[in-house]
């Protein structure tokens, strides 16, 4: 029997982490590799996933027309097909943004 490897401690993102991440990506236009230098212990990939799935989705600007297209796409393409749904809604609406917005409809 081999000894169990120690579990990694999960480091949660703070509000300050999220704000810094958005600032570095949107205002400073840094690459993920450059941004990772500001977050010791986090990979460029984990930062990209955080930004794309949790943070960018919250900043998407929704109009009544976009809401209607989203509702129609959900009805037409089923609720769990977010990539297809986001394409039907239009450019600039990620699958994560559509999924989050659908919860509010």
Summarize the structure.
63% of the residues lie in helices and 0% in strands. The protein has 6 helices and no strands.
Provide structural commentary.
With 105 residues, the chain is mainly alpha-helical. Helices cover 63% and strands 0% of the residues. It contains 6 helices and no strands. The chain has helices at 15-27, 32-36, 44-59, 64-77, 82-89, 95-104. Helix 3 (44-59) crosses helix 6 (95-104), helix 4 packs antiparallel against helix 5 and helix 5 packs across helix 6. The longest helix is centred in the middle third of the chain and has 16 residues, at 44-59. It is globular, with a radius of gyration of 17 Å. The relative contact order is 0.11. The mean pLDDT is 86.
Q: Key terms for this structure?
A:
63% helix; mainly alpha; 105 residues; 0% strand; 6 helices; single chain
Work out the strand percent.
under 5%
Mean pLDDT: 86
Task: Report, as a whole number of angstroms, the end-to-end distance.
Answer: 53 Å
The helix content is 55-70%
The string of secondary-structure elements, in order, is HHHHHH
Describe the secondary structure blueprint for this structure:
Elements (H helix, E strand, L loop, with lengths): L14 H13 L4 H5 L7 H16 L4 H14 L4 H8 L5 H10 L1
């Amino acid at each position: 029997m081999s000894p169990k490897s120690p579990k990694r401690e999960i480091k949660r993102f703070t509000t300050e982490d999220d704000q810094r991440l958005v600032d570095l990506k949107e205002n400073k236009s840094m690459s993920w590799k450059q941004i990772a230098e500001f977050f010791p212990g986090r990979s460029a990939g984990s930062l990209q996933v955080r930004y794309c799935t949790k943070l960018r989705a919250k900043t998407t600007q929704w109009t009544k027309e976009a809401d209607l297209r989203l509702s129609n796409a959900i009805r037409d393409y089923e609720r769990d097909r977010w990539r297809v749904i986001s394409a039907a809604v239009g450019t600039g609406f990620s699958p994560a943004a559509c999924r989050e917005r659908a919860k509010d409809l």
